[in-house]
Amino acid sequence: MPDESDSPSDIEVIKQRKKEGIFIPLTRNVQAKESSTYLEYIKLIHNALPEIDYDGVETTQNFLDHNFKAPIIIDSMTGGTPEATKINSRLSLLAEKFGLGMGLGSQRAGLLSSELSETYSIARSNAPSAFLVANIGGAQLSKGLKIEDIKNMIDMIEANALVVHLNPLQELIQPEGEPKYKGVLAKIKDICANVDIPIIVKEVGAGISMEVATRLESAGVSAINIAGSGGTSWAGVEKLRAETSHDINKINLGELFWDWGIPTALSLMEVRNSVKIPVIASGGIRNGLEIAKCIVLGANMCGMAFPFLKQASKSYESLCEFTNKTLSELKGTMFLVGCKNINELGKSRFIITGELAKVKKWII
Ligand SMILES: Cc1cc2nc3c(=O)[nH]c(=O)nc-3n(C[C@H](O)[C@H](O)[C@H](O)COP(=O)(O)O)c2cc1C
User: Cα separation of 307 and 326, whole Å?
Assistant: First the structure.
C-alpha cells in the first residue's frame, strides 16, 4: 500500500484533485496559448497518381507485440474519483470497439480503497482484449513507492504495459506539488528489471529531449511517449487551481510557464533520431492528418488525451463519431500520399518549413 500516513482525509483531497483535473480542462481553456505543436510546419507530398483505392487503405499497426486496428492510443487521463468512472467506462468501450489502446490516469489513488480502484478496473471489464496501460508518476517513484504497489496497479487493470509519467513542470506549479525528481531514473531502471510487462515513459505535455530519451533507452524502457507541447497545458491547469487557493507564487509560475516545453513535432524528430525503441507521438494532436504527419516523422503510435475527454464527457456516441471522423481523416491522408498501410506511410517523404526548419538545424 502507499504511505502509512494516507488518512481518510488524504483520500478526500486526492478525489477532489482528480475531479478538478477533469473539470478544469473541460470547462476552462487550458490549451497552449502562444506556442504550437509545430506540426503545421510539416507538409506531406501530394501524390496525384496514388495507384491505390481508398477502400484498400489499411490502418492496422503492431506495437509492443499487440495488434491495433489504428495507430491510436487514448492517452492516460483519469481515475480515482467517482466522476472518472463514467469517463473511463465510455473510453474503454471505445478502445474495445475500435481496437485502440487506452491509458488510465495515475493509479496511486486506486491503491487507497476498493471504491477508488473500481474507477480504474471498469476499463478492463469493458475492454477485455484492448491494450490497457497502467500509470504512475515519476514523483511518486522518488517518494519510495514499492515494486509490490506497482504490481498491484498493474493487476488492477490487468495492464498490457505500464506508463511512468514525468511531470516536473506540473509538480512545480501544482499548489500541493512535490517537485522531487532525485533518483527517478534509477527507480525506472529498477522497475524495468523487475516488472514483466513493457515500461513506457511519457511526459504530460512538455516533451522529451534527445538526451532524456537516450538515458531512458539505456535504463531499459520499452517505448517513449514524447507528449510534447502545443496541446493541453498542465502549467495552465495548475495555475487555475492555484487561483482558487490564492497561491500568488504558483499563479505567477503557472502564467510564466504556460507554454513551456518542446513542441511535439520537434520532440518527436529528435527522439526518433536518437533512440531505436518505439516512439509514441502525442501532445496537441487533434485530427487524422496530424496523426499521419507524426507517423511520417517516425512515430509508431499516436496519443490524444483532451479530444477524447471532451467527447467522453458528452456521450459514447460522440466518442464514436469523433473516432470515425479521425480515422476517415487518417485514411484520406494515406490515400492522398499513396500509402496503403502504416508501414508505407512511415517511409513517405515530407517537407519541413517555417520555424521548425530553422530550429531543426541547431538541434538534430
Ligand atoms: C484530464 C486529463 C488528465 C490527465 N491525467 C494524466 C495522468 O494521470 N497521467 C498521465 O501520464 N498523463 C495525464 N494527462 C496528460 C495526457 O496523457 C497528455 O500527455 C497531455 O494531456 C497532452 O495531450 P493532449 O494535448 O492530447 O491533451 C492528463 C490529461 C488530461 C487532459
Answer: 11
- The string of pLDDT tens digits covering residues 249-296 is 999 999 999 999 999 999 999 999 999 999 999 999 999 999 999 999
CA-nearest residue, atom 28 of ligand 1: 77
Number of domains in the chain: 1
Which percentage of the chain shows pLDDT scores above 70?
A: 96
Helix/strand/coil for 217? helix
Per-residue confidence (pLDDT) for residue 113, from 0 to 100: 86
- Does ligand 1 lie within 6 Å of residue 264's CB atom? no
- Residue 1: inside a domain, yes or no? no
Q: Is the CB of 232 under 6 A from ligand 1?
A: yes
Q: Atom 1 (ligand 1): residue with closest C-alpha?
A: 22
CATH classification of the domain holding 192 = 3.20.20.70
CA distances from 83 to 4, 16, 274, 312 (A): 26, 10, 40, 12
Q: Residue 2: inside a domain, yes or no? A: no
Rg (CA), the chain: 20
CB 135 less than 6 A from any atom of ligand 1: yes
Identify whether the C-beta of residue 140 lies closer than 8 Å to the C-beta of residue 183.
Answer: no
The parent domain of residue 310 ranges over 16-363
Question: What's the pLDDT band for 8 if we cut at 50, 70, 90?
Answer: low
Does some domain include residue 47? yes
Can you read off the three cell numbers belonging to residue 342? Answer: 502504416
* CA 245 – ligand 1 centroid, Å: 22
User: Which one has a higher pLDDT value, 238 or 17?
Assistant: 238
Using the mean position of ligand 1's atoms as its centre, give its distance from the Cα of residue 46 in Å: 33
- Residue 306 Cβ inside 6 Å of ligand 1? The answer reads yes
**Which tens digits make up the pLDDT trace of 88-118?**
999 999 999 999 999 999 998 898 888 899 9
Residue 159 included in any domain:
yes
Residue with cell 509492443: 64
Q: Answer yes or no: is the C-beta of 309 below 6 A from any ligand 1 atom.
A: yes
